[in-house]
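Priority: medium. Attachment 1 of 2:
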């Protein structure tokens, strides 16, 4: 009886150098593709977050505008009511307590107007921040604007020196 010969093992060795290189190269390409896909997903996620922040800030501005209009109407009507209560007090049909209550209502209406105005300022700055426009240069602030360029160049110079020492 003849021993079984395995042609497969003889013709295709398991660890052929060219096959290993191809596998390694393919793995690197797959890894690079996965990293690119991951970077694209991260970029899309950042875009969505920025878009959401801008929409939210814009909604805040619109809401604050509506609050301001309502508060202005309340201040106007409270002022008119106060004037009428004062006239009625002068005629003797209202008391000083009624006048004080009307003044308290007017003060509350003014407070609501101030709060609505401050909410609009906050919402406006939120929108500027979401748009990336909340910098000293964009706001025209009288301050010295510093950048990381000198530090980055210094670090790059250090790495360049280390490379030349190693080589």
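Attachment 2 of 2:
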């Amino acid at each position: 009886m003849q021993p079984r010969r395995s042609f497969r093992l003889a013709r295709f060795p398991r660890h052929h150098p060219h096959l290993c290189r191809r596998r390694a190269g393919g793995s690197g390409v797959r890894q690079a593709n996965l990293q690119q896909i991951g970077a694209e997903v991260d970029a899309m996620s950042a875009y969505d977050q920025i878009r959401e922040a801008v929409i939210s800030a814009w909604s805040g501005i619109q809401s604050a505008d509506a609050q301001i209009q309502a508060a202005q109407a309340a201040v106007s009507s409270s002022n008119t009511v106060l004037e009428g209560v004062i006239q009625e007090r002068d005629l003797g049909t209202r008391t000083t307590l009624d006048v004080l209550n009307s003044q308290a209502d007017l003060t509350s209406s003014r407070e609501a107007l101030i709060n609505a105005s401050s909410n609009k300022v906050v919402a406006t700055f939120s929108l500027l921040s979401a748009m990336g426009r909340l910098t000293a240069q964009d706001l025209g602030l009288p301050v010295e604007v510093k950048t990381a360029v000198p530090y980055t160049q210094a670090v790059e110079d250090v790495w360049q020196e280390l490379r030349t020492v190693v080589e």
